[in-house]
Amino acid sequence: xxxxxxxxxxxxxxxxxxxxxxxxxxxxxxxxxxxxxxxxxxxxxxxxxxxxxxxxxxxxxxxxxxxxxxxxxxxxxxxxxxxxxxxxxxxxxxxxxxxxxxxxxxxxxxxxxxxxxxxxxxxxxxxxxxxxxxxxxxxxxxxxxxxxxxxxxxxxxxxxxxxxxxxxxxxxxxxxxxxxxxxxxxxxxxxxxxxxxxxxxxxxxxxxxxxx
Length: 212
What we know:
- By secondary structure, the protein is of the alpha+beta class.
- The protein has one domain (2-202).
- The chain is built from 7 helices and 14 strands.
- The strands form 4 sheets. Strands 2, 3, 4, 9 and 10 form a 5-stranded mixed sheet that branches.
- Helix 4 packs across helix 7.
- The two termini are 18 Å apart.
């Protein structure tokens, strides 16, 4: 069974993959952000330009497809669904365990493209934060795509994700419950929108579903 969903980010979407040395596409993109980097709060990032080791420490970027365009990886949707399954309470409501969920569902395509009237080919801007922990603080920079970007994905699941019992005694059968299985998946999909995608998911990466 399969459900297709089209969604739109209602908050900005932050890249969560570490920068890798020698990424020319990212280097060129950072150079295009020169005006923005003139602001004092971007000083640490500006000083890191040309220092690959430092960039690896502080910069988080988007996953990209073969053409270098930002994408949402299907593994990101899968991880989001795992968190959403707990929020949705699928064991209590549908008797589907978290192990069964993660072994039963699949998201496609592997690279989910982003649209904003047309294909998004590069991040919109870079943002910076000072991350404070109990014993230390450190500087982080993120590629960002502005809210409003749209994407579409599919989730596949077995018809017997949920089951039902029919008959009694020797005639008793455990059968797939397609209606309940679909309801379970829809419940998780609903919570995925509030769990969010990418870095800073508690504040960013939230989305809503739109008609296809």
